[in-house]
């Protein structure tokens, strides 16, 4: 039996505090039995090697034969339950990944780079116009991801306001009414964009979706295409916004590390990887304090523990990123650290399709920000920042900064 170090211990406490779990975790080697907020049992895995291995194990996935009766993380809310298992579910998912992957190709993202730089420059101009203190979340972190997605989806300027509003509503998963309002606005709008591109193709995501519909209308129904588009949009906004907030808080709190990037801007890629590794952000669809939920599709034995078919497994990517058997001094921010790919984008069959775009936004933003605002710092103690999602303690609703 492994005795958990501080990260696992912190995770176990957080689990009880944030999810209101009654019971303590029972250790079974690398796998610990615990209880979720909805009162369901779950297997918690927090060491780096096992988390990584299980993320790529096809016997654990997001499907369940009986989603309504399955163990889950939260008692209510749209996130947390598994998806319905069908014989075609995995194949359909693969087809969706191929389509979305093509839409987010390296070539398309390279073409987007200068535009992202312009967007960042514009947002930082707005920040610079403030009287040496401002809300960084309102002026930069919140608008940046929607503005980038407007480009990717070819949203005309005069429709951008509605688009941004729906996006912000749709990612408010702690406020289900607001979330439904957002999705109700977004879905028909995205379908309209695809229909426009069937008539008049361009080089954007709706054009790729329209082409898929024209090639195989039986599979790529408008409903499926709208689902794929909404997945990109919803998955793309919240975690990127939270990652920007979280990274600013961490980096600005460490004067030496901030100075290292200021003096050697080429360190920014390393710095972003390290900030992502340390970050506690979660992705849409995986919104638990432990990162990634999976359900066993068959009995699976892990380190001597048998996880039965249908049981819930929580792959704690955050604790795994602090596993000192994987990384030395795991809690220290070190922008010179290399070679430790973060698990924050997951791994395996569901690996984040937007990881290159997220990294690009963070790198462009932090390189430009540190160059233009070399003395930026938080204007409030880090502990006083209100989180965007109170259940998860990530992101912010406002980030006062001064320079
Ligand atoms: C820092 C920002 C981001 C983080 C931390 C993040 C994290 C993740 C994680 C952990 C998953 C895997 C979930 C699982 O295994 O169940 C995921 C999936 C996904 N992400 Fe991201 N993501 C980010 C940004 C983005 C962006 C910018 C986009 C697109 C614009 C995006 C699109 C997607 C999509 C489409 C999936 C679903 C993949 C699948 O189910 O096969 N993400 N993301």
TrEMBL record:
UniProt-listed SUPFAM superfamilies: Cytochrome P450
> Which UniProt keywords are listed?
Heme, Iron, Metal-binding, Monooxygenase, Oxidoreductase
What cofactor requirement does the entry state? Answer: heme
Source species, domain of life? Bacteria
Q: Name one Pfam family in it.
A: p450
* Record flagged with keyword Nucleotide-binding: no
Q: Which family does it belong to?
A: Belongs to the cytochrome P450 family.
Protein name according to UniProt: Cytochrome P450
Q: Which taxonomic lineage is given here?
A: Bacteria, Bacillati, Actinomycetota, Actinomycetes, Streptosporangiales
């Amino acid at each position: 039996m492994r005795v958990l170090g501080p990260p696992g211990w912190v995770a176990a406490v957080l689990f009880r505090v944030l999810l209101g779990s009654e019971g303590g975790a029972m250790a079974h080697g690398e796998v610990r039995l615990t209880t979720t907020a909805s009162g369901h049992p779950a297997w918690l895995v927090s060491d780096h090697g096992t988390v990584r291995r299980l993320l790529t194990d096809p016997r654990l996935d997001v499907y369940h034969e009986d989603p309504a009766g399955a163990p889950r993380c939260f008692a209510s809310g749209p996130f947390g339950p598994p998806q319905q298992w069908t014989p075609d579910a995995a194949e359909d998912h693969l087809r969706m990944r191929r389509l979305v992957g093509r839409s987010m190709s390296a070539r398309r993202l390279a073409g987007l780079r200068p535009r992202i730089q312009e967007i960042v420059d514009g947002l930082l101009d707005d920040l610079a116009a403030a009287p040496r203190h401002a809300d960084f979340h309102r002026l930069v972190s919140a608008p940046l991801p929607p503005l980038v997605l407007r480009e990717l989806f070819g949203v005309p300027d005069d429709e951008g306001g509605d688009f941004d509003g729906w996006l912000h509503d749709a990612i408010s998963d702690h406020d289900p009414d607001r979330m439904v309002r957002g999705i109700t606005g977004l879905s028909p709008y995205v379908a309209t964009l695809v229909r426009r591109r069937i008539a008049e193709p361009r080089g954007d995501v709706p054009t790729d979706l329209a082409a898929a519909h024209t090639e195989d209308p039986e599979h790529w129904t408008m409903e499926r295409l709208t689902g794929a588009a909404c997945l990109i949009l919803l998955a793309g906004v919240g975690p990127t916004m939270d990652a920007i907030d979280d990274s600013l808080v961490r980096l600005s709190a460490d004067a030496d590390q901030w100075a290292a990037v200021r003096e050697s801007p080429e360190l920014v890629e390393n710095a972003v990887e390290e900030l992502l590794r340390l970050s506690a952000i979660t992705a849409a669809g995986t919104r638990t304090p432990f990162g990634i939920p999976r359900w066993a599709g068959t009995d699976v034995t892990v380190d001597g523990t048998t996880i039965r078919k249908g049981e819930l497994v929580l792959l704690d990517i955050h604790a795994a990123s602090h596993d000192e058997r994987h990384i030395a001094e795991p809690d220290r921010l070190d922008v010179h650290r290399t070679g430790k790919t973060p698990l924050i984008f997951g791994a395996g069959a569901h690996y984040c399709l937007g990881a290159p775009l997220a990294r690009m936004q963070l790198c462009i933003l932090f390189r430009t920000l540190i160059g233009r605002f070399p003395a930026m710092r938080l204007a409030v103690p880090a502990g006083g920042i209100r989180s965007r999602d109170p259940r998860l303690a990530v992101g912010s609703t406002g980030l006062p900064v001064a320079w």
